[in-house]
């Protein structure tokens, strides 16, 4: 697995390295694009580089795909009203605009991944390599291109469609195509990836996209398009590829259990300081701002006493989500913890205890701040963790399958898949067969099963419930959070899409802004 991290680092370095000479157009310490793309090793390195933008995307996408929803909010920071804090908060408050650096970052990271995928696809075609090698590399590149466009089209709507390497200035400025045209390319790429990629050879996997990854992607695309029969066929092929649920819910997130049989695709990180490592640090972003995280980030005798006051306070679980877990649901304690303490005059939490969220009541004179626990695992250096970010898990597939079957009137089959997920969570089986009621049950199950994995916002939009759910949540939020701006949570259809970045619109006059943004 470490190989993929090393290759990502090498390619990222060679892409920017150069000498301070305006005469040597191809520096000796850089790879020439005219000679590099020749061997299997070259293309393995290039496809590894196409994965790298996913790591950058993961640290921005939770703002747009989780905090935009009713699942998470943020810790207010009245003492620091800097642009970075205000822009992050504005996404959760529904007051963001086209200059927001964090919604824009998602847009740019997706296109970075698309650009690198296009280079691999285009330069691979004429090269004489073994058929199996070419299929594997091409399939991975097409999966990555399709996944990035799927993220873009759901968040931004119609977008420019680049399907080949840009080599001329005039090729860089394209108009937005229709949503249907973007989806057509996504489906074409996903189908190619399914045909070209193999199922996982063994578990744990090596961290790259497989036939299962592409199958899950296309199934979710079909669910978004309400092509339930097509999605059902695809999802039913996953068990034969070896996927299944881990025994315990928390097992899916253990750093010692990466790329397990439950993992269909996850973004890879590797803790450490050696060349080739790329650590994550989600827990330090998700803990409340504090001068000392040590009470929470203690592992055995190792105490990581970290000051995260400049980076924490984001993606805080809402009470709205916490209260929706059923009694005895094992996922609540596995997903959410409570940092208990008191705020100082600098609006930072002084943590005095780390407590369970189950039946939590604050101690006298203390407040309990929820945090995302599923990414809290042992490490030895602050901001240097080993947690991967889940994109697709098998439980997600089971719940999508249950939804697809329910929408076709197959409630019996839907209950079988729904209840497989509920049983692992320690819950009794659902017996509901009314399609409308069962639809709501499945949506609730997706909310708690996939909490903080960047599915909630997409699920709300996909099912047409975003405006209703967020209107109710927004009204509630205004009674809870006294610091919200007056124009927060103005819920309308325009806000179901994020704005095209203003900087892109200024560079490319063919781009037209989404309605409702200026």
Would you give an account of this structure?
The protein is mostly helical. It is 45% helix and 8% strand. The protein has 18 helices and nine strands. The chain has helices at residues 2-16, 33-36, 40-65, 83-93, 101-124, 131-156, 179-196, 211-224, 228-235, 282-286, 319-322, 330-335, 394-407, 411-424, 435-449, 456-462, 466-480, 502-507, and strands at 72-74, 263-267, 298-299, 302-303, 314-317, 336-343, 349-356, 367-372, 389-393. Strands 7-6-8 form a three-stranded antiparallel beta sheet. β3 (298-299) and β4 form a beta hairpin. α6 packs antiparallel against α7 (179-196), α8 packs antiparallel against α9 and α9 packs antiparallel against α13.
Write the layout of secondary structure elements.
Elements: H1 2-16, H2 33-36, H3 40-65, E1 72-74, H4 83-93, H5 101-124, H6 131-156, H7 179-196, H8 211-224, H9 228-235, E2 263-267, H10 282-286, E3 298-299, E4 302-303, E5 314-317, H11 319-322, H12 330-335, E6 336-343, E7 349-356, E8 367-372, E9 389-393, H13 394-407, H14 411-424, H15 435-449, H16 456-462, H17 466-480, H18 502-507
Antiparallel strand pairs: 1-5, 2-9, 3-4, 6-7, 6-8
Helix pairs in contact: 1-3, 3-5, 3-6, 5-6, 6-7, 6-8, 7-8, 8-9, 9-13, 13-14, 13-15, 14-15
């Amino acid at each position: 697995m470490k190989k993929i991290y090393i290759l990502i680092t090498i390619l990222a370095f060679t892409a920017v390295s150069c000498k301070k000479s305006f005469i040597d157009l191809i520096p000796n310490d850089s790879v020439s694009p005219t000679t590099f793309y020749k061997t299997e090793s070259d293309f393995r390195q290039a496809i590894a580089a196409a994965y790298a933008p996913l790591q950058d995307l993961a640290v921005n996408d939770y703002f747009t795909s989780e905090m935009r929803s009713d699942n998470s909010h943020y810790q207010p920071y009245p003492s620091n009203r800097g642009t970075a804090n205000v822009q992050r908060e504005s996404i959760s408050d529904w007051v963001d605009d086209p200059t927001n650096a964090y919604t824009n970052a998602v847009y740019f990271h997706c296109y970075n991944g698309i650009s690198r995928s296009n280079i691999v696809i285009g330069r691979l075609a004429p090269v004489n390599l073994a058929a199996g090698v070419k299929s594997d590399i091409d399939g991975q590149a097409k999966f990555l291109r399709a996944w990035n466009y799927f993220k873009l089209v759901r968040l931004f709507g119609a977008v420019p469609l680049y399907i080949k390497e840009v080599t001329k200035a005039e090729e860089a400025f394209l108009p937005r195509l229709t949503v249907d045209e973007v989806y057509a390319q996504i489906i074409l790429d996903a189908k190619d990836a399914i045909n070209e990629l193999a199922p996982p050879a063994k578990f744990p996997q090596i961290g790259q996209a497989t036939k299962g990854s592409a199958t899950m992607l296309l199934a979710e695309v079909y669910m978004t398009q309400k092509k339930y029969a097509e999605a059902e066929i695809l999802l039913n092929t996953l068990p034969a590829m070896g996927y299944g649920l881990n025994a315990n819910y928390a097992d899916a997130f253990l750093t010692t259990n990466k790329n397990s049989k439950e993992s269909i695709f996850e973004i890879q990180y590797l803790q450490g300081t050696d060349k080739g490592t790329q650590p994550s640090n989600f827990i330090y972003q998700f803990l409340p701002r504090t001068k000392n995280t040590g009470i929470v980030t203690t592992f055995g005798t190792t105490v990581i006493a970290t000051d995260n006051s400049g980076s924490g306070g984001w993606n805080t679980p809402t009470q709205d989500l916490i209260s929706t877990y059923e009694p005895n649901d094992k996922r609540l304690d596995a997903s959410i913890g409570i940092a208990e303490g008191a705020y100082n005059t600098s609006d930072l939490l002084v943590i005095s205890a780390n407590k369970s969220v189950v039946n939590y009541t604050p101690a006298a004179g203390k407040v309990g701040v929820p945090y995302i626990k599923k990414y809290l695992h042992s490490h030895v250096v602050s901001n240097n963790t080993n947690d991967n970010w889940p994109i697709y898990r098998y439980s997600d597939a089971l719940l999508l399958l249950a939804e697809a079957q329910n929408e076709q009137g197959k409630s019996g089959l839907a209950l079988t898949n729904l209840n497989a997920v509920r049983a692992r969570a320690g819950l009794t089986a659902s017996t509901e067969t009314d399609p409308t009621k069962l639809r709501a049950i499945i949506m609730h199950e997706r909310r708690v099963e996939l909490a903080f994995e960047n599915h909630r916002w997409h699920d709300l939009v996909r099912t047409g419930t975003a405006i209703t759910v967020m209107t109710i949540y927004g009204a509630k939020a205004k009674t809870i959070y006294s610091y919200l701006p007056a124009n927060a949570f103005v819920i309308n259809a325009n806000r179901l899409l994020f704005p095209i970045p203003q900087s892109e619109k200024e560079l490319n006059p063919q781009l037209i802004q989404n309605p409702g943004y200026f």
